[in-house]
Specification:
Number of helices: 8
Oligomer: single chain
Radius of gyration: 17 Å
Strand content: 15-25%
Number of domains: 2
CATH architecture of the largest domain: 2-Layer Sandwich
Strand order of the largest sheet: 3-4-6-5
Number of strands: 6
Distance between the termini: 42 Å
CATH class of the largest domain: Alpha Beta
Order of helices and strands: HEHEHHHHHEEHEE
Structural class: alpha+beta
Shape: globular
């Protein structure tokens, strides 16, 4: 198991300000059931209980707002229930945009990939009340893009998940497989940066 959390960290997460749309929990629920069925869902809920929280995935409102701490607790519970490492969590993040109706709704209205990339910050705002996304590189000609997430979300699992999530969105937008991806942390500056690259030779 690659993710641990102390009692002190649980308390800090519970005090984390901000909210998130319920659609992220519906996406988690879809992932759990698809991969591990009802038994998997029970394992996840048991892990949530150990951390002193609960999420009723079946009853969550997709467009409702919920404490952002639950988003991180959900990821932790899934990783602990199925012994997921960082790569597994990133892969889970890659799956999310492909089943999220909010992402599909957002991206279908922008014809050019460059336009869509520039609007990724708006997509974040449709999901989260905390944090801000800034595109710092949009270079389709050379197959590179990078974005900066402002804000502290207290646990590394969230950034590992987002790396896969952002990579999947960029892949969907540019129509290419992401060959390189990484996240760098700048806690003193208050932000985290995500970098993606793809092979421009594959472009038609």
């Amino acid at each position: 198991m690659n993710y641990n959390i102390t009692e002190e960290e649980i308390k800090r997460l519970q005090e984390l300000k901000g909210e998130v749309r319920g659609v992220v929990f519906k996406t988690d629920h879809h992932f759990i059931i698809n991969k591990n069925g009802e038994d998997g869902l029970k394992k996840v809920k048991d892990e949530l209980k150990k951390m002193g929280v609960s999420i009723d995935y079946e009853e969550v409102s997709q467009m409702g707002y919920y404490p952002i701490s639950l988003r991180i607790f959900s990821l932790l519970a899934i990783s602990r229930a199925f012994n997921y490492n960082r790569e597994d969590v990133s892969k889970m993040g890659k799956n999310a945009p492909r089943v999220s109706f909010l992402v599909k709704f957002f991206t279908k209205y922008f014809m050019s990939s460059e336009k869509t990339l520039e609007k990724v910050g708006e997509l974040w705002e449709k999901h989260y009340t905390k944090g801000r996304i800034e595109m710092i590189v949009v270079d389709e000609e050379n197959g590179k893009t990078a974005l900066r997430l402002h804000g502290d979300f207290l646990h590394p699992i969230f950034y590992d998940y987002l790396l896969g999530y952002f990579s999947s969105i960029i892949s969907m937008v540019v129509g290419q497989k992401i060959d390189k991806e990484k996240v760098e942390h700048f806690p003193e500056e208050g932000y985290h940066e995500f970098y993606m690259e793809w092979n421009i030779k594959n472009n038609s």
